[in-house]
């Protein structure tokens, strides 16, 4: 298990809204985490130079490939980056599906920043502990 | 008093009276020559009666001869006037014949005074007494006949021919009664008079000369004829008046006012109903200024233009609807229609027309527009329910960003020292997102507000982009991609952005429902704008749904037609109304491969002949 060179956490953020991406990245920065933002699932997949992320923050509603589809694709590729879904809608069936495919967490956009940060921290810590 | 005196006097008076009355009528109406000529003939007859009386009571050949001479004068007047009367009254008879008759008669008049004692006799040597009406009267005894008498006789025969000819012409013209009465009576009585005179002179019959009696017959028949004509004229006038009254009544009942306008004198007349509509008082003289006064100030230019246009050579009719603002009454809408009458040279001299109160119709038109607006509004409101998801998502984005920014700011403030640059950037972003949220709300409010169609030049791409933004959330949630092709090279159109947005939203959401409902394998909606020339732009919304049953292709645009459980069925009907109000067409067709396409046309910006 490699820890990133600077010792800080790197989070990938995929959301189609630019302002939301920027503000979320800022929040992560304020909490001492680094982030790389993508506007779509395709952009994420297309980034060949992407670092090994400690967490992937994903919206469900995305243009083109949806968040759930990306989750499926990554697991098919063998990518085990933990995925935290943050979505505007709280749909029970979507939540079930996400957990069934092994997501690490499912939050709403209206949930407070503290909750989100705590969730991310918990995910990262769990990952570090796992051999 | 002798019977002879009584009879002849009465006859003379009667003729004189008739003559005087007709003379009076002619005095009042100088172009009714028939009356004057008749009056002269009547006076001639009266004079003849007096001379006849003188003859009958003559005591010596000299007196008798003098009476005969003056009698001929009276005759002359009677005959010439009668000939003229026939000519004028029957409006027939050869003019040359008329002049010949008068000429010959005048020649014999000269002969009457210049060739012996009178035209009939050079010299009357003896008179006889014969019994007549219970007394003894004189008649011709012996005398030397004047050869000039032939001329006089000839003129009479020619007169007869003239009258017969004139009567035949009148008969052929169809005025049979008049021809019979006038022609027949003159011929009959003249023959009588002439015959009697000839027999007395040539045939040596011992009869009293009673020419005037025959003439009086003519006069009385003519008088009867003239009286009948007058009666008929009065009857016609009364019928005309009744007919005018009926027209007035009918037009008043139909609410139609009538008017005429004298173009030359720049003044006009309006019927009672029209006066009422225009707010004119009964006695008011209708001048151009007064008429324009009744027209609503905003409509004055339009009315003037229509009036002027109707008087140019190509136009003869005018039709204009405008508002009337009568003094002290409420404004009303009227429709004025008229026709221009021209003289032989083609100059307009008169305008005649009707005026109709159309306030009720205008009011219902306005009411209809209002209801249509309401319907569009209701449809929009019901669609709002469908758009709730989209709007919610649109608002969530800026609000979500604001929340994250605020939370980040809190965390930054805990740093020692606080990172002021970051904080400034955060505040700027918060302000921008607040603005974005405001815009979304404004767009929603505009969509909800009832608005009449205000067209202006509009780039279609803008409308399509707005619709794309509004439907993005729905499209993503339902996993139906919406492809927008705003079409480069598509010219600007004349339209109302808000209304067109509504139409496109309706079509796109319908397309999504179709695809969803059919659980199609292929899921795609394309919205494309195309310009193929012809001053109109085509917009197409295609889906990959099950298509539309061919029988329903027309029905789907009917109000309240819906196949959706939760639908109201007015979206397509309202959409069609909106497109048609833009001067375009909206229709549906099934695609060759899969699904259906809804298509509408819009006029380009330069085709602004709305």
Give me the Rg of chain A, rounded: 14 Å
Give the integer mean of the pLDDT values of chain A.
86
Low-confidence stretches of chain B: none
Order of helices and strands of chain A: EHEHEHEHEH
Main beta sheet of chain B: strand number and arrangement?
6 strands, antiparallel
What is the number of helical segments of chain B per DSSP (H or I, 4+ residues)? 15
Total strand count of chain B, please? 15
- Terminal CA distance of chain B reads 99 Å
Total count of strands of chain A: 5
Q: What is the percentage of strand-forming residues of chain B?
A: 15-25%
CATH fold descriptor of the largest domain in chain B: Rhopdopsin 7-helix transmembrane proteins
Number of domains of chain B: 4
Helix content of chain A: 40-55%
Full CATH superfamily name of chain A: Response regulator
On the 0 to 100 scale, the average pLDDT of chain B is 84
Class of the largest domain in chain B, according to the CATH hierarchy? Mainly Alpha
Note the total helix count of chain A: 5
Structural class of chain B: alpha+beta
- Global shape of chain A: globular
Largest sheet of chain A: 5 strands, parallel
Key descriptive features of the protein:
heterodimer, A: 131 residues, alpha/beta, Rossmann fold, five-stranded parallel β-sheet, 5 helices, 18% strand, globular, disordered N terminus, B: 610 residues, alpha+beta, Rhopdopsin 7-helix transmembrane proteins, Beta-Lactamase, six-stranded antiparallel β-sheet, five-stranded mixed β-sheet, 15 helices, 17% strand
